[in-house]
Automatic annotation (TrEMBL):
Pfam families: Ribosomal_L3 (PF00297)
Family the UniProt entry places it in: Belongs to the universal ribosomal protein uL3 family.
Listed name of the protein: 50S ribosomal protein L3
Keywords: Methylation, Ribonucleoprotein, Ribosomal protein, RNA-binding, rRNA-binding
Native source organism of the sequence: Anaplasma ovis str. Haibei
Length: 232
């Protein structure tokens, strides 16, 4: 759940490539696709206790019957994946509007949150960058093991948090201050600098305004087709 003056968008990681800047320097970038996203609900502080905008990404089979009926009562008949973003105010947010990738600006910085690639069960050398044991001098079939994990009779146990082999990856990760290189309105693509966006290609990430970097200019809470047309 995103929190701030503007909403965050759920986007699909398409892949990575490289572009050339104005000075001719090669810049590695990641492509993020904004699929059909609509404003399905608006929550106000007077009714719900907080201000939030509920967005839905069109993905078949993501809602149960009670959720579908609740959306139809509000005039939104879409089968989608729901997520909400808390905002400072909900003034001017139109229910049912289609969200555009123009919500973000070229040159601004964004924070991208997603689930990292799962690596399965990994040893200590891969998971924690251990050096392993000696390659010779009596070491037998345990070159990549971690060695001793405990102490003496006192304390007589292994402390919690000890770096050991175990499940690696598939955890929530946030990359901060990624610069927006290009906003392609025709293809609904957002191009951000760097190739360190968490998750594999085809996964979904939450993109929002950077917490540590201000937005370069005043922007709408959420950019929809009607709001962009009215502004133009």
């Amino acid at each position: 759940m995103a929190t701030g003056s503007r909403v965050g968008l759920l986007m699909k990681k398409v892949g990575s490539t490289a572009v050339f800047g104005d000075a001719g320097a090669r810049v590695p970038v990641t492509l993020l696709l904004l699929e059909d996203t609509f404003v399905v609900d608006v929550k106000s502080r007077d009714v719900h206790g907080y201000n939030a905008v509920v967005l839905g990404v069109r993905r078949p089979g993501r809602l149960n019957k009670p959720q579908v009926c609740a959306l139809r009562k509000k005039g939104v008949d879409v089968d989608c994946h729901l997520f909400e973003s808390r905002v400072d105010t909900v003034d001017g947010v139109e229910l049912g509007g289609k969200v555009l990738v123009d919500h973000f600006f070229r040159g601004q910085f964004v924070d991208v949150a997603g689930r990292s690639i799962g690596r399965g069960f990994a040893g200590v050398m891969k998971r924690h960058n251990f050096g392993g044991l000696h390659a010779s001098h009596g070491v037998s079939i345990s070159h990549r093991s971690q060695g001793s994990t405990g102490q003496c009779q006192d304390p007589g146990r292994v402390f919690k948090g000890k770096k050991m082999a175990g499940h690696m990856g598939h955890t929530m990760s946030v990359m901060q201050n990624l610069k927006v290189v290009l906003v392609d309105s025709e293809r609904s693509l957002l191009v951000v600098e760097g190739t360190n966006v968490p998750g594999p290609c085809g996964s979904y990430v939450l993109v929002r305004d950077a917490v540590k970097k201000p937005v370069p200019r005043e922007g709408r809470i959420v950019a929809t087709e009607s709001s962009v047309g009215a502004a133009g």
